[in-house]
Amino acid sequence: MELRRMVRQVMPDAVIMIAEAWSGELDQHGEMPKNRREIVHVQIEFRTGEKYCGDADIIRGPGKPSLGPWTVEDTSRDSGRFVDFFPPKHLH
Length: 92
Known about the structure:
five-stranded antiparallel beta sheet
């Protein structure tokens, strides 16, 4: 079942998506650069309309990987494929 449809049926208090990803500016050929960052990315959306995203660098070295500091931003004005799971506030 599509995630957006499931959220709109169940209407949980929040949706949290977590992903491991590469981050960096594409080069002139549209390729990911060698100096890209490996990150954990989190997208959080509340039924009440608030939306946030954040990411932290994955630090790999000897031993267990760890996370660097988190950056968090308000994405309440964003829309697109990976946000807007809940119906518009005036509909619920």
